[in-house]
Model the fold of this input.
Amino acid sequence: MLVRDTVDNFIGRAIGNPIYNGWFSNGSLNAAKLKTCLVHQVLGAVAFPGADYNGTADVTGLQALYPGDTATYICRSMANAHTGLKIPTTANNALVADLIEAMDEEAVPAEVQTAITTALGPQFADIIDEAEDATATNSAYNFLGGKPTLLRLLNGNDCDPATAGDQPCFIARVLADATLASFFSAAVTRDGGARLVGCLQRQIAGDIAGGPDDYDNANFLAEPALQALGQCKDMVAAHAGLGITDAQFEALDVHAATALTLLLGPVLNGSDAAATTKAQAISAAVVAALTGTQMCLDIVEAADEDAACVAFDPDNNPDSP
Done:
């Protein structure tokens, strides 16, 4: 079935595209339902005989369209399905580009492609959250540039421990720090740091920056690096037995704050006062979350250290990040 093959092709592209796959990255995603609803939606868009759903309204009792799936599904309107997801135009544009590439690869006739995109075009307004396109009102996640920017912050392609001093790359910085490298080297050696980066990205994106990721609820289709070792661990479990000291925790925080400041440098030093103010606020919020008392209590455990974990801030710690 051409439509089903096209939807499968598109889903494969979607789960691999960091521009927007954060919205597909949680384990709560029902992949079977998503695929069936997309097939029904495309059939409805081209007015296929008997098609009941085209994305403009909720439709119940839709039969699964994939072999072995006997379920029936409720497919929601685009407006209802995307309420509160904070999807910006850039993410939607990337999704549309992937859909077009999928149709091209599956040799969907040009006139059918036109019919599909013409029918779906007006629904993009139900998907896009216009507030996320404006600097003054968008979320910290979208302001930062979403998942691609967070991945660059953590482990950008240009990161090298030898030159990390002037690059916004957290993993490279800690590997270059002799007091911290041992805590990260095993994870980096095991799989190139893919799991470590994946979990850190989910933590910053979801727990701190208001993005779509649920930290410990990954969909392994979109996050294959996490599949072999399971869901991301909570901070206590992830750091148990490591003997991390207060001083090491603070050094870690300094690297995180420095990487974030370098990443936001063009905005912090730019001419847009509103964007600069927002960048400062976001940077402060992220650093506060990473250096707060609870985070310290969860991570620091060395018996010979003062584990009172007062927050590392300028008021009580002059050399804080």
Summary: The longest helix spans residues 273-291. The domain at 2-133 is CATH 1.10.490.10 (Globin-like). The first strand starts at residue 59 and ends at 63.
